[in-house]
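Human: Here is a favour to ask of a fellow structure person. Comparing notes only helps if you start from a blank page. Give me a protein, with the fold worked out from its sequence. Please set it down just below, with no commentary around it:

Assistant:
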Amino acid sequence: MIDGSPSSAGLEAQIRTIAPFDLASLAEVHAACFAEAWDSGALAGLLAMPGAQGLVAEGPGTSVVLGFVLLRAIAGEAEILTIAVKPGARRGGIGRRLLNAATASAAASGASRLFLEVAVDNGPAHALYLAAGFAEVARRANYYPGRGGAITALVLAKDIASRSMVPLAQT
């Protein structure tokens, strides 16, 4: 468990590393969150990439998946590949806690900068990322498929302190 403390909204969740038995549940959450859903095979493929990591948030005392994040850390940089929270579990701090846990995991892997992409029309996610210290560094026009046409992606980045960069205590 990485973080078992209650969120500010009072919804408790356990955050832990993704296991192979989680893949079907993760695919269901992803399908509930995105028009272009990733199935369990696609998720397994992403997790098999060098530097890939995944964290899942479960309901208190249950194995019900409330959300998850996949990231990849390599060569001093990290990227959040996807972050998803079940629609019924949103606005309870789970996305923020997953984002914080992913940031800590990326830093522990030696990354000094974390990137992610968000659809320009995803106001709640964009607000979460800005509140967490991310800033826009680029735009990708027509990046995401949308019902009414392609949607622009905002590329956001945040400098993070990797554990390898933290100075040792002086004696």
